[in-house]
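re: ur question from yesterday

yeah so i grabbed the chain u mentioned. its 167 aa long if i counted rite. heres the sequnce exactly as i have it in my notes:
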Amino acid sequence: MQYNITFKAPWGTPLKSMTTLSILIGVGIPLIGIFSGPRGDIGWILGMIIMPLAILIIAAFFMIRGYDLTGDTLLIRRLGWNSKLDLSRLISADVDSKAMTKSIRAFGNGGMFCFAGLFYNKKLGSYRAFATDPKRSVVLRFSNRVAVVTPDDPAEFTARVKELRGL
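ran it thru and got these structure tokens back, copy pasting raw so excuse formatting
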């Protein structure tokens, strides 16, 4: 059976708050740099103006815009590109609104447009997150890893994945 089903990736309150704070800092530092810094100092211009704006722009390209179930692949839609998860080795898919609770970020983005990267907690162990609202978490267990996604309708997403994979 061929699927092509799209789920949105709504932002939860923690992501909205963290992104707003990040934008305020990422725009505020350059404004301070422009209005109070020495003119012509390349180190100042790079550190106070270019770098904070570059970080914001780069992080924006990694934002998670949605999820597409297509055949044996889950596409995580980003701004201008997709990340892919091969579902052929999927063992289980379960809704768990507390899956990301007490997680430690090992490597990745902890709230600037998304929660994405490598995380760890006692419940899941090491896992990869592609999240925008941790309360909508779906835990995808593979034979060799764990991933967490946060579609707009976790129950429907899980049902579709189980149907697709025959779980």
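noticed a couple things. The longest helix spans residues 13-36. also The chain has one domain: 1-167.
anyway ttyl
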